[in-house]
Amino acid sequence: MELIEITSFSDPYSPTPNPALISDEAREEFWAKQATRLDWAEPWHTTHRFDKPQKIGTDEAGNDILSVPEIAWFEGGKLNVSYNCVDRHVDAGRGNHVALYFEGEPGDRLVYTYADLQREVSKAANALLKLGVEEGDRVVIYLPVIPETVIITLACARIGAIHSLVFGGFSAEALKFRVEDTGAKVLVTTDGQNRRGAVVPVKTNADQACSGENNIEHVIVVRRTSRPGRMDLPRGTRGLRSKQEDTVPWTRGRDVWWHELTADVSDVHVPEAFDAETPLFIIYTSGTTGKPKGLVHTMGGYLVQTAYTHALMFDLLPDVPDANGVLRPDELSAVNDPAKVDSTVHWCTADLAWVTAHTYEIYGPLANGVTEVIYEGTPNTPDYGRHFEVIERYGVTNYYTAPTLIRSLMGAFPKGLPQVYNLSSIRLLGSVGESINPEAWRWLRAQVGRDEVPFVDTWWQSETGSCVASPRPHDPQFAPPGTFDDAAPHTSLKPGCATRAVPGISVRVLDESGEEVPAGLQGFAVVDKIGPSMARTVWGDPQRYLSSYWSAYGERGWFLAGDGARTDDEGDLYILGRVDDVINVSGHRLSTIEIESALVTHPHVVEAGATPIKDPVTGHAVLAYVVLTAEAQSLSADEVREELRAHVAQEIGPIAKPREVIAVPDLPKTRSGKITRRLLTQLYEGQTLGDRSSLQNEEALDAIADVLATRE
After folding, report:
1. Which H or E run includes 83?
2. Phi and psi of 320, rounded to 5°?
3. DSSP letter, residue 363
4. 521 pLDDT above the threshold of 80
5. Which end of the chain is more exposed for a tag (fewer CB within 10 A), N or C?
6. What angle in degrees, to the nearest 10, is found between the helix axes of 403-412 and 438-447?
7. pLDDT higher than 60, residue 239
8. How many CB atoms lie within 10 A of CB 10?
9. Residue 60: pLDDT band with limits 50, 70, 90
């Protein structure tokens, strides 16, 4: 496979125009053009309809009562999402192209071509139909990162069932909430999971989640850790199931082994076309601010924006000569460059239950027909070199990961990566999940990207479905030195900058009254021109959809993202974290992201979490939790506190100095890598801890509590 380097760059004096900034008509025409990327069984009659929230009365307190917004894209059109991700590539003669490289944590490996995937997804669709799953039924998928997760997800899409993926490390309580909230008919789980070198039984969690009031009819169990039995024996024969299989907790009449269910079903299934606004999946937000919300994404609009933004950000679009004969990227193209598609090996490291993985690990890469990698395990099993072994083994070209993981790698390799890994296949890096601090950005680009590859620092949310703002791989800032003259705009590297909205979408930074804030000042990030992949509602609670996202600016049709942001003098966008992650010290509004970024520039600090605590004089004070490098573990608490307070004062200013700096083993995070700062405040102030159901490492709370107890 030929490695294609990025050699064309946008003209800094003539950037690609954003249709969303031209007119609503131009924006809709652009998305209609992008929709031609997909195969439609029937065309749409209306590209876009947006019924904005309208005042419909007042409540007893005199507050406006607003209608719930309605969003639709490509109404009247019909398509099948699974066909667009699998079958059409086979029909186009690319059935032998590798779709999926799988590596399990223990070292087992599998390869699926698009033809293989078509057969497996068809079998899975027939198996679900055999259990009585129909269009509109909900299927909760509680699986690790294994091929069956992708296959069953695509099978649900194929038959019109609504899938909801749940992180395999979540507790029974978190799973139970999702089973009950979705009203799921089927739950899919495993006998056990490989995690950090050990086998973790999870079927018990599934059983607990199915206790009580719910609509579960069947629990499908994928065999992952049990030794296989003798499938060649007749049913009922001793030895058909192994002793390990027999020890898995079982409810007769409800539970069914996946391998037995699929053993005698056809591997041919003719996909049915569904309306573009048919629900595709329900994804639950992280729950950092209360009970998780089940966001509903629909088939047509979601897949259109997902396919386009994946192609845009991960270098699949064609290069065309400009008026002077210089090759430039065609950022508005609705077709891909076949050579780029064939040469791409894409790896998004997220767990498949996270929205990033839905969009840029399942649907986006497969809709565009590229090869992708999925890895089951943790990045430090058996050691922190595992990811680099995976990159080398499969020739990964795109490495898309979370800032949290990058900072962990920085801590594991304080002197840089050893020169034992061949990472020459990497041509593009990306980050997602939270704002990335510049130090982590520079480290990954230097250590993995040879200080030369593009770095797409993407900003988007579960609510938006796919990317809202990001650098492009062909931006002038990534061009080799000397490509453009020194006075050219947008040619300086901007670590941690989301730069600008993707074509077809517009983002503003506003104050509370809806006025744009000047460059350099913090405001609220608002999407004032939405794209097709925007979530349509909150499952079972449309009023919460209104109150969470549209009550502030909804009458103008503007989506409140909930993140703070600022722009620089060139108009480029910096995301500063959640607006509720702002610390107000004596009237000064300080971003937790900026404080954390300052802390991790210190050589002793691997990770940092900044959060507000009450102060009788200043209103709030800054509390900083830090994860230290191995070399700094011997420092006393006072030494850590004073050195890091002085460092923050130097980096930001005395007003930002933390009142307390506490070294801890780990920080509590959601699966998307977001630090749950409210829990850090609650721990310090001795409050009752709020919702923890979305944490990936709940044990971090106990470890922090132990540290705090020793300080009393």
Report:
1. none
2. -130, 150
3. I
4. yes
5. C
6. 70
7. no
8. 20
9. confident
The DSSP-derived string for 483-504 is SS-TT-TT-S--TT--BSBPTT
Strands (E), 114-242: 138-141, 162-165, 186-190, 192-195, 198-201, 218-222
CB 277 within 8 A of CB 81: no
CB 672 within 8 A of CB 433: yes
Q: Are 269 and 126 in contact (CB under 8 A)?
A: yes
| pLDDT at position 653 | 77
pLDDT category of residue 289 using cuts at 50, 70 and 90: very low
What is the 3-state secondary structure of 234-278? Answer: CCCCCCCCCHHHHCCCCCCCCEEEHHHHCCCCCCCCCCCCEECCC
Paired with 398 in beta bridges are: 346, 428
The helix or strand, by DSSP H or E, that contains position 127, with its residue range, turns out to be helix 114-130
Q: What is the pLDDT of residues 70-96, one digit of tens each?
A: 999 999 999 999 999 999 999 999 999
Please determine, for residue 528, whether its predicted confidence score (pLDDT) is greater than 60. yes
CA 650, CA 602: separation in Å to the nearest integer?
Answer: 11
Q: Which two tokens stand for residue 190?
A: 């495993």
Mean local confidence (pLDDT), 509-523: 91
Whether 404 contacts 672, CB under 8 Å: no
Please name the residues in contact with 39: beta carbons below 8 A apart, sequence gap of 6 or more.
Answer: 79, 83, 84, 88
